[in-house]
Amino acid sequence: MKLPRVTAVVAAAVLAPAVLFPSSAVAADAPQPAGVVGPDTAEADRPTGAPGPGPAETGRPVGSEPGTTAPEGGVTQEELDRAEIERILADKDSGISVREEAQKALAVGTPEALRRYLAEGLEVARYIDDRVKVFQALAVGGPAVKRAAVAAVTAQTHSALIAFLKEGWFTAQAEDDRDEIERLLADPQTSRRLRLAAQKALDAGTTTALRHFVEVELADVRAGDDRVEVTQILSKGGPAVQKAAREALNGSYADLVKFLKEGQFAARAEDDHAEIERIVADPQTGPHTRSAAQKALDRDAAGLRGFLESELAAVRMSDHRVRVSQIAESGGPAVRQAALAALEGSDQAVLGFLEYGWDAARAKDEAAAKAGGQPTAQPTTQPTEQAPATTPAPQDTATAPTGQAAPTGQVVQAAVGSTGSGTGTRHAPTTRATTTGTVASRPGQLAATGAEGLGTEAGAAAAAVAAGAALVVVSRRRRPTED
Description:
Layout: H1 8-15, H2 41-44, H3 55-58, H4 77-90, H5 96-108, H6 111-140, H7 143-155, H8 158-186, H9 192-204, H10 207-236, H11 239-249, H12 253-281, H13 287-296, H14 301-330, H15 333-344, H16 347-377, H17 408-419, E1 430-434, E2 437-441, H18 456-482
Antiparallel strand pairs: 1-2
Helix pairs in contact: 4-5, 4-6, 5-6, 6-7, 6-8, 7-8, 8-9, 8-10, 9-10, 10-11, 10-12, 11-12, 12-13, 12-14, 13-14, 14-15, 14-16, 15-16, 17-18
């Protein structure tokens, strides 16, 4: 008997089994037509292209030829074969090679062609289709499925392929499903909802429960988690991110996945670029920050994000420290002390000084200035309020006894010595003869107030007061003589 002839497509499938076609996970041999015995195990294990079964293997009596009348019912073998081939074509589980060879046999139409297909071509076509199914499982399966599929293909027997498709595939798939569920449970990123569903399937322990979770529940729970994640991104994102997130939430699940994988990053880069442009345009931005921001505008999406998350705080702190240094140079004692303390401290200390420490220190300086200026504006003792004969004027403690009134000439000289020519320059000590004796006058001391070392304005005011007091004293002393 000649070897069976197959089509170019069938031969290509045998030589290149990596060509995959969608098919179901279970394949079974089609029942044989009435009066024909199907291939036994030996026939299934027969290598491709081996001679077909003889009369003893087919169950036909020796000398029985296709097209002859059957022993009972008056139906010919050709009619039985044609009906069986048509049934195979109507079976939804028939593979591509099986269908193609069946259609060719019907197209030839001779009793010999029909019998040859059922006796030999059908088994070869089934072997090719089952081999393709195993390679399909190998391509998409997990580690356990891949190992079982490789073992079935390596055996090079049809029975090994059938055993894998009927049982081995499902056993290996259950092992892979269990491993996938355990991996989800061990992943810290797994959401609470997904974790509960995975644990429930794992506790059930059946292959059906494991497969249902992986094929159905996993996608549903992840879709809910993805929607929650998009909503969270929407609440924290900028204008562009918010717009893209809303569009994803209003679309399909594929839109959600695309936003999480791509859309959010493109929208965030747009928001980051706009934020850096705002920093550059802000008049309150320091020089170091503005320079760094201008350079960051030329970066890609990752560079923009890196500037805002990592570099911006550092350059801003540099500008803050420069500002505090400037305040320390121009501020009062309290401000200077607080500013220098902040510069020696942490970044939080610098920020705290700028936020509230500066105002507090400046208030201290202003209060100290008001308290220190009060004696200058209001002398401790007013010369005009002193009695002319009994209340002594302030004098040098080295020459004037306590309780003795200073001579008129000494008062005037003290006033002149304090003010000089109006520039605040002190004069050398001088002596004047008075009616009570010679008294040395100390430069820089005001006769009426006892203030010493005052500035030009304070000295002039005090001199005026002292001069007025001296004139009052002189006028009162001369009044009895004139009378």
